[in-house]
Design a protein that fits this description.
Radius of gyration: 44 Å
Distance between the termini: 43 Å
Helix content: 55-70%
Structural class: alpha+beta
Number of helices: 12
Number of strands: 11
Order of helices and strands: HHHHEHEEEHHHEHEEHEEHHEE
Strand content: 5-15%
């Protein structure tokens, strides 16, 4: 369960996950470093420096309390006060004491200074760290009243303590940018390999040069070897199809010639029926196998493909119409031979089981859709996935009383996958029968 939740929140791409793996440790290190630095600096260093300056303050205030003449004491301590950089103002010269300590909300060092003063100096009354930048004002209780003490802030805390954090964060940001660039260069060969594999799945051959890390180069070489083996197998398949088509049709032609010289009787009719069925099965098998051997891709008018098929079936007397288009789709990259066979099978399959067929073409959001609607009995939802498998004939509805090898939908589905698309069977909302939707990516250039 936890693994599924973690996978849900992770980025989908490998690049995003790699960035996440890179950034999380950096952020954690920055947080730990900042916390440790702040603790050591604002609590220990500041407390130590404040404690050190308290000895000087105690000495000066002690001398002041011990004498009944504060003016004379201040005159005698003038050289020492100048050296210590601590200014003491007697009650007559002291500024009004604030009602509460004056310190900025985010001044952690200032808060630490006040904490140490309150805990270590019993005569401490109030402190003001806001009136003058870089100056600490203290009010202490003395024998002669409340005196004001001014001292430079650098005596109780280090100046510009944030500089180290800024430098660390800037250095981390710079190193992160360098790591991003390095990571992008490492991810680029993986993306190229993925793009080449995806393109090859659509029947395209994209040039691929192995690069990157050793494992990525090995994967690229393995893909190129696999692609070469598949192309050799396709070349052999073409040769085999040509030989099968010739070798199988020659004896069938001789058998028909022999039958033509025989007398008309029941045996001759039965043999002619069997030969016709054998030829139909052979044509179906060759058509399905031929669809797996792709023709060359080219810029094709998607409307012209289906228009020619519709006109041909209409000329043969079938009730088929092509829906009007609001806008003619632009030419896209297709395997025209494979797509023609796929559409021909979808239309012929619809006409075999229905009395009316409507074909439509649309293009939106970068996708081309061929929709073949009919008013036939349709296919049950639980049988639609199985109907697209090769050599499958359903027992109900569309294939119960019809012929064929059960390859029509399989050929169309295979062609859609080769183009990077899908074939979906659903209920026709307009005619009430079956609706076959072939959805293909609309690419306008190789």
């Amino acid at each position: 369960m936890s693994r599924g939740i973690l996978h849900h929140f992770l980025p989908a791409s490998f690049y995003g996950r790699a960035i996440l793996i890179l950034i999380i440790p950096i952020i954690v290190i920055q947080i730990v470093l900042s916390v440790v630095f702040i603790q050591r600096h604002y609590e220990r260093v500041t407390a130590q420096m404040t404690t050190n300056i308290l000895r000087d303050i105690r000495f000066l205030t002690g001398r002041l309390d011990a004498s009944p003449e504060p003016q004379a004491v201040m005159l005698s301590l003038s050289d020492l006060v100048e050296i210590l950089q601590i200014e003491i103002r007697l009650p007559s010269d002291a500024a009004p004491m604030p009602a509460e300590d004056q310190v900025a909300r985010f001044d952690l060092a200032g808060k630490e200074i006040i904490r140490v003063l309150r805990s270590e100096l019993s005569s401490f009354r109030m402190a003001d760290l806001l009136r003058e930048s870089g100056t600490v004002r203290l009010w202490l209780e003395s024998r002669h009243g409340v005196v004001e003490i001014l001292l430079p802030r650098r005596l109780v805390t280090t100046p510009n303590p944030h500089q180290l954090l800024v430098i660390v964060f800037l250095a981390s940001g710079l190193m992160t940018l360098i790591a991003f660039q390095f990571l992008r260069l490492q991810i680029r060969p993986i993306r190229r390999l993925g793009a080449a594999a995806e393109a090859y799945g659509r029947g395209e051959r994209v040039a691929l040069r192995p690069s990157g890390a050793r494992e990525i180069r090995a994967a690229a070489h393995a893909f190129m070897d696999m692609r070469n083996r598949i192309e050799r197998q396709r070349a052999q398949q073409k040769i085999m199809l040509s030989g099968v088509s010739h070798d199988m049709r020659t004896p069938l032609t001789r058998m028909r010639l022999i039958l033509s010289m025989m007398q008309d009787d029941e045996d001759r009719t039965a043999l002619e029926t069997e030969i016709s069925d054998l030829e139909a099965r052979l044509d179906g098998f060759l058509d399905y196998t031929r669809g797996q051997v792709q023709d060359e891709q080219q810029l094709t008018d998607p409307l012209a493909l289906v228009t020619n098929l519709v006109e041909r079936y209409r000329a043969a007397g079938h009730s088929i119409t092509l829906a009007k288009l609001p806008k003619r789709p632009k030419p896209i990259i297709l395997h025209p031979g494979s797509m023609t066979r796929a559409l021909d099978n979808l239309i012929s399959n619809a006409l075999r089981h229905a009395s009316r067929v409507v074909v439509s073409v649309s293009m939106q959001d970068g996708w081309l859709e061929y929709c073949i609607n009919d008013d036939g009995p349709g296919i049950l939802p639980e049988d639609r996935a199985r109907a697209c498998d090769p050599f499958v004939r359903l027992d109900e509805a569309r294939n119960s009383d019809s012929g064929g090898m059960g390859l029509g939908l399989a050929i169309a589905a295979e062609s859609a996958r080769d183009h990077g698309g899908t074939l979906v069977l659903e209920d026709s909302p307009d005619l009430g029968g079956l609706r076959a939707v072939m959805r293909l990516p609309a690419r306008h250039s190789l």
